[in-house]
Amino acid sequence: MYSPPSTLLSINDKSNRARPPVHTQQSKQRQKFLPESSDPIRARKMNDADVSKQIQQMVRFIRQEAEEKANEISVSAEEEFNIEKLQLVEAEKKKIRQEYERKEKQVQIRKKIEYSMQLNASRIKVLQAQDDLVNSMKEDASKELLNVSHHHHSYEHLLKDLIVQGLLRLKEPSVLLRCRKADAHHVGSVLHSAKEEYAENAKVHPPEIIVDDVHLPPAPSHHNAHGPFLPLSFSFFNLDYLSSRMLASRDGKIVFENTLDARLDVVFRKKLPEIRKSLFGQVAA
């Protein structure tokens, strides 16, 4: 009986049992290695996808944030624009209102000035009409004085009273009397009685009265009652002498004008408020 092959087989069987086949161990190792070597690739692929996805998300986030920021800036700019535009519009409106208010005030002031000017012009016309009426009354009174000398007795009595009044005002022992040439005869007839009456009233001696050879201008005629000399505007030696006297001291330093037109002017000025009140119902200033 041949036993070595069995022994060899036994040995081989033992060695085979003791050590697995090479190809089985290598395949296991390959199988074990392949999964371990394929995970990083898959992980890398997965990481690239995640990174890309994250990048896209970040891009979308940044874009959204940028759009929101741009929208906020646009809204803020629109609000600021509207506010500034409103302020500019209101400022221009205010300027326009102020300009129209200024023009309206100017118009009102112009109207007030025009009204005041028209009112003053009306008042001046009224006052001028009143003055014309008063002056016409004085002219009428001056015309009436022209008839005084026609009544000789009463006229001589008036001349004497005027001479006495002048002497009482002068109170001089010697005076110079100047009269109209037409009144020289009447003055001579009443001169003595005038001196006596003055002496009695003044309790003095009768004064010396010299009748001046230089006469006063004659009275105006009825046809020229206004004359070249107006009663309302006369100077000392440029008078509308209707009649009567002008007395002066001998040295000429004191002169007393007592003509009829001068007396009329004095009375007229004194009675002017009463005349105006009687004519116009009020006392004029």
TrEMBL record:
Biased composition (Polar residues): 1-13
Keyword Chaperone applies: no
UniProt GO cellular component terms: proton-transporting two-sector ATPase complex, catalytic domain
Keywords of the record: Ion transport, Transport
Gene3D superfamilies named among the record's database cross-references: 6.10.250.1620, ATP synthase, E subunit, C-terminal (3.30.2320.30)
Pfam families to which the protein is assigned, alphabetical: vATP-synt_E
Compositionally biased residues, Basic and acidic residues: 39-48
Record region (Disordered): 1-48
GO MF, any single term: proton-transporting ATPase activity, rotational mechanism
Family under the similarity heading: Belongs to the V-ATPase E subunit family.
Protein name: V-type proton ATPase subunit E
